[in-house]
Amino acid sequence: MCNAKILLVSNEMSYTGAPIALLQMARILIRNNYDVSVASLVMGNFTKEFDNINVEVQYLDQNNLKNYKNYFKQFDLIILSTIVCYRIYKYARKYTSTVLLVTEAQQWLPYCYDRNLDILLKSSKRFYCVSEYAAEIFYKEFNVKLKILHNAIEDCYKDDKKYCKDGKFNFLVMGTIAKEKGFHTVVDAVKILPEKCRQKIHITFAGRLIDAYKNYSDKLLQDIDNLSCIEYIGEITNNEDKIQLYQNTDIIIVPSVDESCSLVALEGAMMSCALILTNNVGAKYIVNKRNGFLFKMGNEKELANIIRNIVEKNVDIKKMGKFAREEYLNTSTIEIYEKNILKMVHNNLNRSHNFEIIAYRVAKICSTIFSIRKNRVHIEIKLFGVKLKIRID
């Protein structure tokens, strides 16, 4: 359905995973002749990336959603990125078809419970997530099956990559400097490595510093100053600089405590880097024995052993990187993503959204007697002493 009007909404405009993924989606939809608009709850420097594709980012005040009623009505489909946009989802779906892409996982469960989002999740079939890892978490917690829409990144690979620059294994850890990203696990692993091993590695940390995590980042940077094999280079906002950084990297480490996917892992695989991820990273679906390693979240000893084995066994990192790129080509290219995005858009443009609104309102009123079993809605109402049981397939 060409020329349909689609609104994409981001939680923020920073150089982080969710806005980057939304930019990819915007490019695909524009390329397929959809009329695309973009809005954000928080403005930031990433807006210039949308400017580059001639899309102006509008500020959206979710505390005054009633002011946007006519604005939402003009769109054929609204796609919201991150569960932080749930209030917009609840309001906008009254007026047009609306989809919410959940980019969070385990650590956001308390957030969901605090806002009674369990009822919303159970009553809607328009929630997507980005990995099997995230889907499993929400299924176990809320008995809800989220559809999976894997992320993807553009192929920027250059076939002149050199490995073990300066005779060392070069590692990269990239992301916001926050406890949830697990950078400290890498530092703690390096501390217990033998000095002979440290001399054969170089680890680059890259990512933005934010005030909310100042105590954590200050301690981390202090530890880095005492370790000559680790270097912090700040936030990377230029794509060419980022690609060059990957070009000089042999191995990507994603030590996150909990991450629904990880664009860094996908980018590393695309750039033919070997991978080291925790079991709590959704992008682990691209890791196998030929291209990388998995370790238990927060286990610095296990990570140290992986690094030590790579160094002492002089692992063929070039070969591992080649297999990582093969997995990227099988799972995470823009071409694959485009097919999945267009399918998702088509399915939601052509479906009535009235039933799920009714289901949510009934669930909210009768939450103690509302349940979903085997994809069927069960409601039991007691009226004048008579029990009425309703099942909606």
In short:
By secondary structure, the chain is an alpha/beta fold. The chain is built from 16 helices and 16 strands. Helix 7 (132-142) links the parallel strand 6 and strand 7.
Key terms for this structure?
single chain; 393 residues; alpha/beta; seven-stranded parallel beta sheet; six-stranded parallel beta sheet; 16 strands
Walk me through the structure.
Helix 7 links the parallel strand 6 and strand 7. It is globular, with a radius of gyration of 23 Å. The strands form three sheets. Strands 3-2-1-4-5-6-7 form a seven-stranded parallel β-sheet, sandwiched between helices. The protein is α/β, with parallel strands linked by helices. Residues 367-374 and 382-386 have low confidence and may be disordered. The chain starts with a strand and ends with a strand. Helices cover 39% and strands 20% of the residues. The longest helix has 16 residues, at 334-349. The chain has helices spanning 17-31, 47-51, 69-73, 86-92, 109-114, 117-123, 132-142, 183-191, 195-198, 214-225, 239-247, 263-270, 300-312, 317-331, 334-349, 354-365; strands at residues 5-10, 35-40, 57-59, 77-81, 97-102, 127-129, 147-148, 169-174, 201-206, 230-232, 251-254, 274-278, 292-295, 370-373, 376-383, 386-392. The chain has 16 helices and 16 strands.
Shape: globular
Task: Indicate the radius of gyration in whole angstroms.
Answer: 23 Å
Percent range for β-strand residues = 15-25%
- Count all strands and give the number: 16
The main β sheet shows up as: 7 strands, parallel
Number of helical elements: 16
